[in-house]
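Anyone up for a design puzzle?
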């Protein structure tokens, strides 16, 4: 019991630093670091290294990488993203206007045979407007859920600010379009 108490005190002081050392360059914890964290074990303490290595073999099957689980998770994420896109296309007129304008710009760019770099810049501008509009809609819905039906001036200001982000992105896209198409039209 005394050994366990000393270990816990020592472990609490250096545990996170040691677990970070056991992580890869992206900050993903190794299975041994996860095991040590769950068992509240200091992975650099020589007294407990043998215990970790012995117990780790029983622990690792729970954390084995599964292609099936990873693919299932990825497909579920894409399914939810497509559901969100379907919802926003059904409910938001602005996103449909942005998509229509973007499609018209792409057709004009193909007709005028803009360079590859110019097409990439146009596509980036179009996608920026659409993504900003999606974020705007998500934030507005979130604010409505949190605030309910009552009027709140702070919520109004927040909605105005996020709407201004869409406006600025759309203005930027229009300026990009004028610059790129200007030399082909004039």
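Challenge accepted. My sequence:
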């Amino acid at each position: 019991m005394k050994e366990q108490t000393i270990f816990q005190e020592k472990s609490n002081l250096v545990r996170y630093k040691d677990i970070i050392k056991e992580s890869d360059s992206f900050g993903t914890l190794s299975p041994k670091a996860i095991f040590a964290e769950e068992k509240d074990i200091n992975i650099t303490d020589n007294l407990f290294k043998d215990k970790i290595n012995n117990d780790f073999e029983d622990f690792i099957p729970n954390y084995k990488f599964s292609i099936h689980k990873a693919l299932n998770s990825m497909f579920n994420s894409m399914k939810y993203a497509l559901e969100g896109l379907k919802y926003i296309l059904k409910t938001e007129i602005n996103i449909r206007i942005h998509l229509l304008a973007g499609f018209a710009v792409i057709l004009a760019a193909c007709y005028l045979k803009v360079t590859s770099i110019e097409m990439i810049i146009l596509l980036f501008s179009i996608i920026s407007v659409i993504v900003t509009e999606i974020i705007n809609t998500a934030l507005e819905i979130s604010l409505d859920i949190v605030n309910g039906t009552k009027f709140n001036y702070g919520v109004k200001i927040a909605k105005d600010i996020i709407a201004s982000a869409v406006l600025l992105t759309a203005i930027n896209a229009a300026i990009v379009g004028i610059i790129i198409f200007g030399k082909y039209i004039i």
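A detail worth pointing out: Confidence is low (pLDDT under 50) at residues 9-26.
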